[in-house]
Amino acid sequence: MMMDKTRQAATVLAVCASILLAGMIIAYKPGMVTELIDFRFPTGVPPALGTTGFTTSATTDTTNNLKTLSVSGTGVIKVKANQATVSLGLYTENREASTAINENAAKMTVVITALKQLGFKDEDMQTTSYSVYPNYNWEIRMVIGYQVTNMIQIKIKDLTKVGPAIDAASSAGANKVDSIGFGITEETASAMKLQAYQAAIADAKSKSDVITSGLGIKVAGVQSVTESAYYPVVEYRSYDSSGASSVKETTPVLSGNLSVTVTLNIVYLIEPATA
Fold first, then answer.
1. Cβ(92)–Cβ(162) below 8 Å
2. Which of 138, 136, 111, 137 is nearest to 125 (CA)?
3. In angstroms, rounded to a whole number, what is the distance separating the alpha carbons of residues 165 and 171?
4. Is 72 exposed, middle or buried (CB count within 10 Å of its CB: 0-12, 13-18, 19+)?
5. Is residue 232 within 8 Å of residue 184, measured between CB atoms?
6. How far is 80 from 130, CA to CA, in rounded Å?
7. Closest-CA residue to 70 (of 274, 216, 268, 221)
8. pTM of the full structure
9. What is the pLDDT of residues 165-195, one digit of tens each?
């Protein structure tokens, strides 16, 4: 009997505590945080029937209303190409794959030897592709032979050797010249890039001067600068090697100019111009 009365009393206290807690939550205001944190349940109410405390958090908007002006500037520097790459090679055909492979290797050795006689070294040449394909006759539906193609790329730092290199390779047996590409060395690219940066900054500044003077504002600083593009443009030209080995004149090759381009995106901080 006594145990039942104790349980009833505990239940009543728990209900009262829940009602009291609900009322405080409904009436809660920001200024009452301290009071809520210091709240304690009445004596005799077990902690298990309620909660022991409250956790609060607050955020402050610290965003500054900065006025900015975004301007892009582009600098382009023209430079004459001082490096070239030539892609050339040869293909052989034979009914037997092994024969076609051996013939190709022998002829390519002659081509490489001819290029070395012009002063090119092993580090100036590299194989870019090597393939062995069956020649399939669809009319009789069978393989009638094999074609082997071996292509190399030559890096030429002396542009006066571009034409002689093509002629020497063609005379030695190269029957395929894919392309000639012109570029600039890394040292030249780095130097030209710095000049392009200066031109891009000057371009952006001239634009900002026109805009700020027209709108009655002034530049107060720079918020950020990002580089969106830099690239040297490389020209590639196809080359027809048919009949190259039958002429005595040196193949004329004109390199032309290349462009080093830098584009900067600058975000300026602005403020009203003083009277």
1. no
2. 111
3. 10
4. middle
5. yes
6. 33
7. 268
8. 0.59
9. 999 999 999 999 988 888 888 888 889 999 9
